Amino acid sequence: MEELENELEILKTNLPDYVTALAWSADDAMLMASDASGNVALIQVGTQQVQIEKVCKDSILTMSASNEQNVVFLSSQDSTWKLLELPGLSLIAEGKTNAWIEQAHWSPDGQHLVFSYGKTLELRNRKGELMHTYSEHDSTLTGLCWRYDSKAFATCCYGSLSIYEIHAQAKRKLPWKTSLISLEWSPDGKFIIAGTQDNAVHIWNAPFRENNDSEMSGYPAKVKCLSFDSKSKFLATNCLSDVVLWKFSGKPPHGQKPVELKGHASPIRQLKFQPNGKLLITGDALGFLLFWIPDLKRELYSGARLKGEISAIQWSNNTLYVAAATSEGEIVLMESPE
Fold first, then answer.
1. CA–CA distance from 315 to each of 7, 11, 274, 296, 319 (Å)?
2. What is the model's pLDDT at position 300?
3. Residue 34, pLDDT score
4. What is the pLDDT of residues 107-136, one digit of tens each?
5. Is the bond preceding residue 207 a cis peptide, omega within 30 degrees?
6. Is residue 76 left, alpha or beta, with left meaning phi > 0 and alpha meaning psi from -120 to 50?
């Protein structure tokens, strides 16, 4: 694997510090990368020009770009946040919270943004205006995801999963006995998945209510990476150096034997399916990137190696490109193999 050549590479560049996040502009003309020193790299796909801007004085913790509007939200370690317009990063709105913002996601339709800090959630519109504050959580929020129709989002923390309908301001709380550390809502809206503190994957089925759930246990470590394919057929999860795939067929995979994809020699740090495609990309602690086609075969499709642990992976909205970045500040832009 050490001799893998990246034939898909379009551009490679560097930031001065650990890359904390990657994001694409809505038109896919620009890739953005943020680092632990407050810098943002603006990478023009067409011209391959790279511009580095000092945007925050402290480490950038989150960066999330709208799929529909050329705007990007970012938060930093000094508990401030900014909403910026692309391509010039002109300021739309900014604010400050009483704790770090560690979860931030745009709705699929690009109309609303929700972010969390401590036990609190804020829902804002695309202008950055506050729509609602949710502050009734029992503990620090550890996961956040939107439903496909942009009308609801889910959060998790120690002891519960919560579902919010944004227009009705309604909340549904589903207790669970342990800490939930990662969260994913299936593209068809039928399943909400959480990785748990006790090395398992917990599944809630629609209609979401108590005692309508199941669990896949036996993982040797915590499941921090979750990703559904675009048809909600496969759920990919990290299992140390392996990918564990669960197959969904309109119902949860309880009682099934999962598919294991073996190819990495170190723990998987990132994994993500194409937004509208069949490819899965995974990245590990040694900097290896591997591509898979789970629906067709179980073996390795192609791969590459970067310098440092893979810290972020992001597909372009049109799925023609994929970017990856590392703890050493390296960023690579690639064409999709398919």
1. 17, 15, 6, 20, 6
2. 67
3. 98
4. 999 999 999 999 999 999 999 999 999 987
5. yes
6. beta
The answer for residues whose C-beta is within 8 angstroms of residue 310's C-beta and 6 or more apart is 269, 270, 283, 284, 285, 287, 288, 289, 324, 325, 326
Q: pLDDT (tens digit, 9 = 90+) per residue, 46-103?
A: 999 999 999 999 999 999 999 999 999 999 999 999 999 999 999 999 999 999 999 9
Cβ-contact 148, 133 below 8 angstroms: no
CB distance 19 to 310 below 8 Å: no
Buried b (16+ CB within 10 A) or exposed e, 184-209: bbbbeebbbbbbbeeebbbbbbeebe
Pick the closest to residue 65 from 102, 117, 28 (CA basis): 28
Buried (b) or exposed (e) across 303-326, using 16+ Cβ within 10 A?
bbbbebbbbbbbbbbebebbbbbb
**Contacts with 301 (C-beta within 8 Å, 6 or more apart), sequence order:** 279, 290, 291, 292, 293, 337
Give the pLDDT of residue 294: 85
Are 61 and 102 a contacting pair, CB within 8 Å? yes
State residue 326's pLDDT score.
98
The answer to pTM > 0.85 is: yes
In the numeric block, the tokens 């959060």 are attached to 155
Q: What is the pLDDT of residue 1?
A: 45
3: alpha, beta or left? (left if phi > 0; alpha if psi -120 to 50):
alpha
> In angstroms, how far is the first alpha carbon of the chain from the final one?
21
Secondary structure class of 1 (helix, strand, coil): coil
CA distances from 122 to 101, 142, 153, 166 (A): 10, 15, 12, 11
Q: Which residues of the chain have pLDDT under 70?
A: 1-5, 296-300
Backbone angles phi, psi at 172, to 5 degrees: -125, 125
Distance CA 328, CA 163 (A): 37
